[in-house]
Each structure stands twice: as structure tokens, then as C-alpha cells.
Amino acid sequence: MSGPLVLGIESSCDETGVGIVRGHELLANEVASSVDLHVRFGGVVPEVASRAHLEALLPTLHRAAERAAAAADVDLTEIDAVSVTAGPGLMGALVVGLAGAKALAWALDKPLYAVNHLAGHVAVDLLEHGPLPQPAVALLVSGGHTSLLRVDDVATSITEVGATIDDAAGEAYDKVARLLGLSYPGGPVIDRAATGDPAAIAFPRGLTLRRDLERHRFDFSFSGLKTAVARWVEQREAAGLDVPVADVAASFQEAVCDVLSAKAIDACRELGSTDLLIGGGVAANSRLRALLAERAEQAGIALRRPRPGLCTDNGAMIAVLGAEVVDRGLAPSSFDVAANSSLPVSTVAL
Amino acid sequence: MSEQTPTEPLTLAIDTSTDVVVGLAGGEAVVAEHRNADARRHVEDLMPSVITLLGGAGVARTTLDAVVVGMGPGPFTGLRVGIATARVLADTLRIPLRAVCGLDAVAADWVHGANPPDGDFLVVADARRREVYWARYDATGRRQDGPSVSAPTGLPALPLAGPGHRLCPDHRLGTGAPERLDGGALARWGGGLPEVGDEPLYLRRPDAAVPTRRKSVLAARTGHR
Ligand SMILES: [Zn+2]
User: Fold this and answer.
1) Domain membership flag for residue A262
2) Chain A nearest-CA residue for B41
3) From ligand 1's centre to the CA of B164, what distance in Å?
4) Is A20:A9 a contact under the CB 8 Å cutoff?
């Protein structure tokens, strides 16, 4: 057979995910999202997300089990291991999935593997594009994370080479969307609204000045950009002028994607990587994909991007990471393993 | 593992509304119980507590007949750990789950104890923010009112049971009243307590504000200078 049969549970933010894989083969990937409950708050409310996780946990587990039974005649009693997100993420949300995973593993008498959510975003690409050349660079962008990683082995060796020093890129999208009177989540909304001129307004590119590059070559900052957009919109309103939403959205998006892609390509060159993997919800952004594709091609770098349903948070990414960890022969987690809301990406498995 | 062959149905009880509390009962008899009072380690301590409890009693997971879980009221994050665990355990082991109010279990414990109440009483638990979760019971342990959350000052003048009694200076703990939810009592009496449904007894809405007007960055800038 081809690899261990692993069930993965994800509950770090606002998606309850249960996935089942056999090695690099996807058998089930069921997700229940609470995103609709957060719309009126303009961002994820931890307590609302945690309540939704508890409600969705068993139904999502059942759907995944049914899917794997139908697709591959797999029964849960046959799985080799249970893997689960231990962090990073929202503490109240993480503990629901972790508690459920512990109970499942113990009730089935199978080993438990508590793993890193960010590493899951990298591992999920194995389901679509097979083994990852080493070293690879991964750019993870979502409402919760903005990181640039060096991946030597997805199960044992990941190093953060850069991260946001303030807001996550997706958070900046949410805030600018609200500023423009658009809905939540901001990523897809701004992407759709960005039909104007991306060069209409010269918004700042965070941490790209020469003095910033010395200390923060691969880091990101979106807080200044967000404030610049707010100031531009307010000045416009104060002058009694209309706000050209399409131009503002396009110019903001250009500033974000310009920095993300430039630093990601720079990291590939610096680290000698010929492969750039992108993941996280913002990886589905059309401008980011286009800009990355263009710059990667110029630099002779192969771009790897899982399909959108695997880029956003899901259980399959945790399952396939679990399968890799099992495959490397790492020891299972103890049943007293804790959730860690700020788990560093260098800790792939606990 | 040496396995018992019990004639009485084996019930595992789980409650994480305050401490991590587990218990095991065989029919009418409490077999074992365990409490872990570190209120910040629910997800760490619960499964090890269950494993230790069953191991100590020589009970295999496959011989469990039912699970009882306390649905609160209780502080939210810890509470969910017990509910998620109990749901997945019962579902995976294919045994029934009974979801009960934790205050009801404290009431049952007192009513069936050596020194039962002689009239109506309250069960109270710490709800933080200077409030208590509480419910009112008659002398047979049947819930008359609640569960509710409120300041301890407005409670009816009745004897108390439960972990919130220290927060109620105008009240006294009833003679013989249990001060805490006991895992053994929950396992022993849980099967006969009312089902409270699928929704945890949160009794409070999530803290979340719907954003109103945005703050002016221009005003904020000048204001700080
Ligand atoms: Zn994520």
C-alpha cells in the first residue's frame, strides 16, 4: 500500500475540518465553516468560533468517515493514526479539536500526533504535486498568518525566514474592506472589487526600504499600508470627493501582492530554492497568483499552489502532515499534550 | 489489562465545567473517581484522567456501557473540552451519551447523601465576573428554577450546595451539602437526571461588539501630537 492511513482534525480558527488520507492520496476532506457567523463583526470572534467548532465536530467527523467509506471502502477502525492541529491558532478553538482527537485516538486505540498548523499548509501540497524538492520556500498568507518558510523536510525541518511584524495580510484585507464599506472576509471581496488601476495610488510597500531590508529582508508589515489607505480615503471624503473604490482596492491589493511576491522570490534566490509553494486563504487571490507566476517564471522558479479548497484551513492538510510524521517514524504525542496558540513552525510535531 | 466482568452497566462520567472531574459507576455503585483541580489544564488532563481511572479500576474501554457529561453551566473554554471528549468517546465506542446539567448532579448527590436537605435549596457555581451560576431545587432534588447566572446578592434565601457557596456571603452552605461536583456522583446519578439537549449551558452571549463607525486616523494623528 501507499503510505499510512491517517485521519486529521483541524480547528485552529473558524473552519472545523476533518480529512482522511492514505499517504499522499486524499480520501476525504470535510469542512464546516463558521465564517458567516463572523461577518457582522468584521473579523473572527474567538468565542463564536469555539462554540461553532463544538457543534460541528461530530457531524464533520461523520461526513468524513462516510466519504472515506464510500470512496475507498475505509472504516475508521482501520486507520493507523489520528493527527490534530496543536497550534498556532485561537486557544479556545484549538482545544475543541484537540480534545476530540484525543478521545478518538484513545477510543480507537490508535496513536495520536499533535502537529503544527503552518506545516500542514505546506504538507497539503503533497496531495496534489507529490514530493517537495528540497529546500523549498513556502509563502503562507491568510487572515491569521503571513510567513515565509524554508522547508528542508516538511515533517522534521522547517525554518521561518520571515513573518509579519504586525498584521497578517488577510487581516489588512479585512480592515481595508471595512474601510471601503465592503463585506467580510476582505480577501475575496477586495479581489473582486479591484477592477480599477493598480497604479492609481502609490500606497507604501512595507519593509522594502534599504534600511528596513537590513533587519527585515524577509519580514512583512501591513499596518502602515492599512493606515495609509485609511488616511487617503478620509482626506478624499473630507474634500467632498467620491472614493474610487475600484482604484483604491486595486492599488491596495497591488501594494500587498507586490511585497509578498518580491520577498518570496528573493527568498528563493537567497536560499537556492527552485520551488516556491504558496498556501493559506490569500493564496487564492488572483493578483497574487498572477504576480507570483510572472516573477517566478522570470526567475526560473517553479510555483506550486494547491487548489483553493486545500489552501484554506482544512483537515486533509493535518492528515497528510500526520502521514508524513508517521512515515518518518517519529514518536506519537502523549495524551497530555497541550494546545499552543503561538506554536513556532520549527516545532512540526509535539 | 485484567478485565472485570461486571453485571451492572458501567457508566463513565466527565465534567470540565470547573475542575477536570471524571468518575466511573457500575450500576448503583461508584467504582472510582478522580479530580484534577488545575483549572487551566483541561485539555491536557482530561484524557490522562480517564485512562488512569479506567486503568486503576481494571476496566477496558470496550466494556463501557454509557457516558454521562456535564453540559455546564461553566466557563466556556474548559467546559467544551469535556463535552467534545464525551461526544467523541460515546460516538466512537458506540454507546449512549447522556448530557446533563452539572448543578443537577450536585443536587442529586446531596439528596441521596447521608445528610439530605430538609427543604428547597440552591446549587451555585462560580461564573466569574462576580456572578454565580445557580439553580433552585426542592427536597427531592428536582430543579424548580434555573440554571441562571446573576450576582450572588439577589439569590433566594435558601441553603446552598456547590462550588460557588464561598461567593455568596449572605448564604450558608447546607448541612451535609456537597461543596463540589463529584465524578462518582455524576456517574452514579447522571443516568437519571434530565437531558439538557445539545447546546452547552453557556447562559451568556459571546463577548463581541459589532463595529460601528470607524475611528478617524487623521483625528487620531493630530490628537496624539
Ligand atoms: Zn491556516
Assistant:
1) yes
2) A338
3) 39
4) no
pLDDT tens series, chain A, 350 aa = 589 999 999 999 999 999 999 999 999 999 999 999 998 888 899 999 999 999 999 999 999 999 999 999 999 999 999 999 999 999 999 999 999 999 999 999 999 999 999 999 999 999 999 999 989 999 999 888 899 999 999 999 999 999 999 998 999 999 999 999 999 989 999 999 999 999 999 999 999 888 888 889 999 999 999 999 999 999 999 999 999 999 999 999 999 999 999 999 999 999 999 999 999 988 888 899 999 999 999 999 999 999 988 999 999 999 999 999 999 999 999 999 999 999 999 999 99
Residue A252: other Cβ atoms inside 10 A: 29
What is the whole-number distance in angstroms between the Cα of residue A27 and the centre of ligand 1?
Answer: 21
Residue A348 domain flag: no
Q: How far is B177 from chain A (nearest CA, A)?
A: 32
Cβ atoms within 10 Å of B33's Cβ, excluding its own: 20
Within 115-174 of B, beta carbons closer than 8 Å to A belong to none
Domain that includes residue B185, residue range: 10-101+180-192
Inside any domain, residue A346 = no
Contacts of B213 in chain A (CB under 8 A): none
Q: Which residues are CB-contacts of A247 (< 8 A; sequence separation ≥ 6)?
A: A196, A197, A200, A201
Domain hosting residue A233, numbered range: 134-308
**Contact B1/A at CB under 8 A:** no
**CA–CA dist B80, B72 (Å, integer):** 9
This model of the complex carries an ipTM of 0.94
Those residues with Cβ within 8 angstroms of residue A227's Cβ, 6 or more apart along the chain or in another chain: B217
In this structure, what CATH number is given to the domain that contains residue A323? 3.30.420.40
Whether residue B2 lies within 8 A of chain A, CB to CB, comes out as: no
Residues in chain A with CB shorter than 8 Å from the CB of B76 are 47, 50-51, 92
The residue type found at A171 is E
Could you tell me the three cell numbers for A323? 502521514
